[in-house]
């Protein structure tokens, strides 16, 4: 197994660890550290895979799944802490990621095609990680307007990424017919 794929597997392991430290242990420093480690491994697996030509079909499929599950889990945990509008973000993430997974499965079944990540998807993921990290570290100390603005900007970028991926999906689907 390649180093990038091991890093992706580590991200899958970090998901329940994050949830446990955030919900059960209620440890802000540990939760923030685990989220940061997840974000760093996400960056490193992609960087190493591209830089050293270690891109695998497994990685192309499971890296974004690890991202999606991480983001949804973190959004759910933060939503449970009562931050206003986080339920809207959580609901949006579940909707967006479910659509993208179903679309990806559809393309894969029709023509063994895997949709790679694009800059807008990566930008949305980075923004979600930053938002969640900020809410974990400073959530109680940020004013409501700042929190709400960060949440709505994240949703807006997520909507943009969803629209762009949807356009790409339909173009790819047409070429497979």
Textual characterization of the structure:
The protein has a single domain (about 5-175), classed as Four Helix Bundle (Hemerythrin (Met), subunit A) (Up-down Bundle), CATH 1.20.120.1760. Helices cover about 85% and strands about 0% of the residues. It has helices at about 5-25, 30-50, 55-80, 85-110, 120-140, 145-175. Helix 2 (about 30-50) packs antiparallel against helix 5 (about 120-140) and helix 3 (about 55-80) packs antiparallel against helix 4. The longest helix has about 35 residues, at about 145-175. The termini are far apart.
What portion of residues belong to β-strands? under 5%
CATH superfamily: CDP-alcohol phosphotransferase transmembrane (TM) domain
- N- to C-terminal distance: 35 Å
Structural class: mainly alpha
Helical content band: over 70%
Assembly type of the shown chains?
Answer: single chain
Number of contiguous helices? 6
CATH class: Mainly Alpha
* Main sheet: strands, sense, barrel: none
**Helix and strand element order:** HHHHHH
Tell me what the CATH architecture is.
Up-down Bundle
- Average pLDDT figure: 90
Silhouette:
globular
Domain count, please report it. 1
Radius of gyration: 17 Å
Total beta-strand segments = 0
Provide the CATH topology: Four Helix Bundle (Hemerythrin (Met), subunit A)
Which residues sit in consecutive blocks of at least 5 with pLDDT less than 50?
A: none
What structural keywords apply?
single chain, 6 helices, Four Helix Bundle (Hemerythrin (Met), subunit A), globular, mainly alpha
Any chance you could write out the topology, listing elements then pairs?
Blueprint: H1 3-24, H2 28-51, H3 57-80, H4 86-111, H5 119-138, H6 144-176
Helix pairs in contact: 1-2, 1-3, 2-3, 2-5, 3-4, 3-5, 4-6, 5-6
């Amino acid at each position: 197994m390649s180093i990038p794929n091991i890093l992706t597997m580590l991200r899958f392991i970090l998901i329940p660890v994050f949830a446990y430290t955030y919900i059960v242990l209620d440890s802000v420093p540990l939760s923030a550290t685990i989220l940061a480690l997840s974000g760093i491994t996400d960056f490193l697996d992609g960087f190493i895979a591209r830089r050293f030509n270690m891109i695998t079909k497994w990685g192309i499929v499971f890296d974004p799944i690890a991202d999606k599950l991480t983001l949804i889990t973190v959004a759910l945990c933060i939503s449970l802490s009562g931050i206003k509008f986080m339920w809207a973000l959580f609901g949006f993430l579940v909707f967006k990621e479910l659509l993208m997974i179903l679309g990806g499965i559809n393309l894969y079944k029709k023509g063994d095609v895997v949709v790679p990540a694009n800059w807008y998807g990566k930008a949305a993921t980075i923004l979600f990680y930053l938002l969640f990290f900020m809410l974990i570290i400073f959530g109680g100390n940020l004013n409501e307007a700042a929190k709400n603005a960060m949440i709505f900007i994240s949703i807006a970028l997520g909507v943009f990424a969803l629209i762009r991926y949807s356009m790409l999906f339909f173009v790819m689907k047409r070429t497979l017919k």
